[in-house]
Amino acid sequence: MPMIKEAHLWNKIMKAALAIPGVCIDRQVFLSSTFKDALPPEELSQVLELRPAVVIKRSVIDNLATRLIKYHTRAVTTLSTLTGLPGGPAILASIPTDLAQYYYHVFVLAQKLAYLYGFPDLREKDEKGKPQVTDDMMDMLTLFVGTMMGADIANKVLRDICLDITVQIAKKVPQQALTRSIYYPLVKQVAQHIGVDLSKNSVSKTIGKFIPIIGGIVSGTVTYATFYPGAQRLQKTLHKQMDLLGTESSEAKIQIPTDDIERLVVKALINMSLMNERDKEKKQNFILQYLQHTTLIDTEKKSFAEALREGHAFKVDFREFKDDPVCSTQLMRLLTEIINMSNKISINEKIYLHKIARELGYSTSDLEEFLQEK
User: Fold this and answer.
1) Of the residues 190, 212, 246, which one is the last residue of a structural domain?
2) Does 269 lie in the same domain as 218?
3) Measuring CA to CA, which residue among 108, 47, 45 is closest to residue 75?
4) % of residues, the chain, pLDDT over 70
5) Domain end: 246, 271, 288, which one?
6) pTM of the predicted model, to two decimals?
7) β-strand 124-125 against 131-132: which pairing, if any?
8) Does residue 272 contact residue 352 with C-beta atoms inside 8 Å?
9) In this predicted model, what pLDDT tens digit does every residue of 246-261 receive, in sequence order?
10) Number of domains, the chain
11) Secondary element (H or E) of residue 283
12) What phi and psi values does residue 124 have, to the nearest 5 degrees?
């Protein structure tokens, strides 16, 4: 299935930036180097095993985050100014490099801020124990960048993932599989948002680069005007999530297995797609994309795909989601994403969505908020 053009642009830039040496931050090394001179060994051990907020004041964490933001802002602005100096058509060849270098600093800063505010290591280890970049890590970086750009959906999904991390742990944050397939379509929506923003903002920088000297100033100014406020936006968002990541409840846990959740979600999405014939192909592609990234076995995926093509409806007990606030929220967002693919909401869609919202315990105002999310 072809990817959306804007999301494809973002993925190309992200992969180029992630190919730059040093872009992936080792959580243990970063936190150790940051706090080793300020903490005794036993407290440093707690920071590494749990999170900094366990032993460090929030004001100190905020100050460290501010210093990191200022450092990387200076570095990326200087770099952008220098790479913007040459003029002429030949500079077009360096634009991908410029963007990759910009997002190198974005990714490095985002990882450092995430680790300061309590996230586990975004990388996973392969069979030989070597850390590697995974799809989950790329999805998390996409959400961080979306948050920096002011995408509301990125903020909401990021908050849900923080809650998801919390409900899956007792006293130690898991070191792998931050995201689940239930987030996949929403992460891709954020990627599309970033791609659109990149397409718009690159125009001013491209024009400026044709003018020697002035081009460098334009490039540096645009970089500063986007990087610094974006970094502050991410820092504020992560600060707000600290309470979630700081929870150490041994009683919190997912009530139903992931594959059961995925089956229920697929059934609900198929049912919703049948409520309105408009944009049928677009809705089916959305569901098939979600289905492809579930953990269900291939025979189940094929069975659901066939049911989707044949217009087969399913009976779903939505009360199963009530004990999992993360998944119920994501389910509502996925369902409203299906609805918003058509210009006009049908009466059948309204009735079905109201029924689901009622069973999940959402109010009418909650439902309106879901429908207004873009």
Assistant:
1) 246
2) no
3) 108
4) 75
5) 246
6) 0.70
7) antiparallel
8) yes
9) 544 333 333 344 667 8
10) 2
11) helix 280-292
12) -125, 160
